[in-house]
Amino acid sequence: CSPLPEPEPQMYGEVQSPLYPQPYPPNLQEQWDLAVPEGYQIRLTFTHLDIEASANCYYDSLTVFYKEKALWKFCGSENSADGHHPGNQPILSPGNSLTLIFQSDSNNPEAHQNLGFSAQYQAIDIDECSAPEPGDGSGPLCSQICLNTLGSYLCSCHHGYELRSDQRTCVLSCGGGIFDEPEGHLFSPGYPNHPPHAVSCQYVISVQEGFTITLNFTDNFHIESMDSPEGPQCLHHWLELTVRDEQPIKLCGRTSPGVIVTNSNMVKLEYHTDDEGQSNGWSLDYSTHRVKCPLPGSVAKGRVTPSLSEYLFRDYIYVRCDQGYKLMMNGREIESFSTICQSNGKWHRPLPECRIIDCGEPDPLLNGGVAFLSGFQNQYLSVIQYRCNEPFYSLLGDANVNFTCDADRKWRSTHEVIDSPLCLPVCGQPTNHINVYQR
Amino acid sequence: IFGGQDAPDNTIPWQVLLSVSGKRAGGMVIGDRWVMTAAHNIVDKGAVVSNDTLQIFMGLNEVTALKKSPLFAASIHVHPEYNNPSYVDYNNDIALIKLEDTLTFNSSVMPVCLPEPGATYDTGVMGLVSGFGLTIENNRQILTNQLKYVYLPVVDQQTCRDSITSARRRSNNIPDLTTNMFCAGLPEGGKDSCQGDSGSPFTLTKDGRHWAAGIVSWGVDCGRKGTYGVYTRVANYLNWIQKTMQEN
Predict the structure, then answer these.
(1) What's the pLDDT tens digit per position in B30-53?
(2) Closest Cβ opposite residue B8 in set A425, A428, A434
(3) Which chain A residues have a beta carbon less than 8 Å from that of B8?
(4) Cα separations in angstroms, B139 against A233, B2, B24, B225
């Protein structure tokens, strides 16, 4: 023998006695195991029941079991005086299964042929939330709010409470966790009313680096304090404020701390009360602001843009040099410069220098030379003059031989000519002449 | 040069002395890599002499000193229409020598100007002829060691042609005077260019500049009365000169 497989849960079905609607045969023992999904119960509705009637359904019967416990035993017909007929009302199983056993004895009354029964069943959602509290002392199904669902249920909690991990009971909510939105509102449990005793709540406000948190406590602030000669002491109830890299401070009393600028992107608040005393608690709004970077200063012979009264996290600045100057950083020329205000309040890189450009040594002139007229070391706006080795060479044409170091680092004449001039030989003009004085 | 004088230093800085297989000739500097001369100096028996037989000197007036620092030719360009196998046809007697090295000009080496397009050769205008060719002292022709010069007037073309015709009565095989030539000299003789001056410059002056009007080419005797020196008319070759220099 091997165990029969569990019947596949159905949402509805039909059960009929053998040969129905013909009279059922004698000596029967037939069993039906009905099952619907977990969380449902079975509603069984008889459309017809005609079983030989007898006292206590002694001879023929249809017995309904739930987990081996006989719940009902039916026989007879709708109007018979004997027997036990279910009538028109459906029957409801306690759980998601039912077993029907139909049996007949060896004798059937010859005058009347009984037809047996026909019944339909369907799965009916169990309203677990309506179930009475178990008597085992485990408490209600849900400690606060029970929400029935098809085939199951959910527990929920009132405002100010959180569902425990057992998904059944609720615990006082501190509204805790991590607050990472740029602004928000926090309050102690039950605020503005006093919460249950022995509260220990932690709140962490943590926003992106580059932002600082400012707390703004509302005026209605009440944390029990103990008076002492040194002033109010936060002995039993307190709100401890911890800012990164700073000593924690404890707040209590009836005076709101008002606005606290933390200069930090993370603030931890721990609210503590003991088993005695009363504190109505506190509430605050927090906001965040971008970290400020120092004013970048100025660059000689350059311009820092944009010019703002203050520079905040993620602000960019650019530096451009005046005409004739180039950007230099760490001894190297750079094509462009920008820097960003970082989350730590420092600029991503320091400002560059603007150094005057130079055009380099002017091209040498064959059979000529070059002389500086003004300026310094081939720098921007320096003026040079090309000359030819006179009297044996002369410049081509009457071109202006003065070249100026231009902003594009090219020596350029006033005629926008870049190429250096050309020295052409002077012909036919000896430096010494044949002088004939004799006549 | 007959009837001339020693040229002071740096007065004719375009003057070139050529030594072609040991034979003395003249030339003139016309660019920082170019020397112009007479074609007949560098064509021997119808063939252009090889570069290595040609030595080029410039910058000094004294031959012995000058010859200490020769320059050499990179290429020789004879006028394509020069054809003088029998030494009686000096038409197109012009050639260009390209130097191996570029010259840097100074007071002793300077180019002579080329003629302007349409330059005129007016009769009687005095020109300057120079050279290291034969000179005459005490009725004896001698080889000079010193650059000499003489001023000579441009001679009327017909007058020159007549003198050549007259000379033909005394001597055969006298070359023809063509339009590519002009004459310079004195009817009474005594002043002239001579052998060894070939290729040297005959310059005229305009606006204080010397321009190469002629190249010493040929003549009947030297300094003789009634004869004139014949010079290649450079102005007729401007296009060829420029083309040759540009293409090379």
Answers:
(1) 999 999 999 999 998 889 999 999
(2) A434
(3) 432, 434
(4) 142, 11, 21, 14
